[in-house]
Amino acid sequence: MIGxxxxxxxxxxxxxxxxxxxxxxxxxxxxxxQEETLKYASAFCKVTKKQRDKIMEELLKLETINEExxxxxxxxxxxxxxxxKILPEKKSEVKEEDLxxxxxxxxxxxxxxxxx
Length: 116
Fold this sequence. Notes:
DNA polymerase, domain 1; 2 domains; single chain
């Protein structure tokens, strides 16, 4: 990675990171950092590609939910409004009704929480 130039920067979900690294691993050997990232993504990724895409599509339809916040929501899949409220950055103006709608989207399309 040393000496390579950064061409662009984009927020991506853990699910997408996992898929990208799996494809790279099929093509060639991963670096140590990539291998560790793949292990992490595999352990903590909670959604499938189909779920991720559907949730992202629905979240981005909401007026005050931007791509960065949508990625956080997909990675964490909060099940309570209190947790959803702490995700936006302090400087962002996210409407509470959008957060409630986002919570419903997560519950609708995301994996079902395990019962204790």
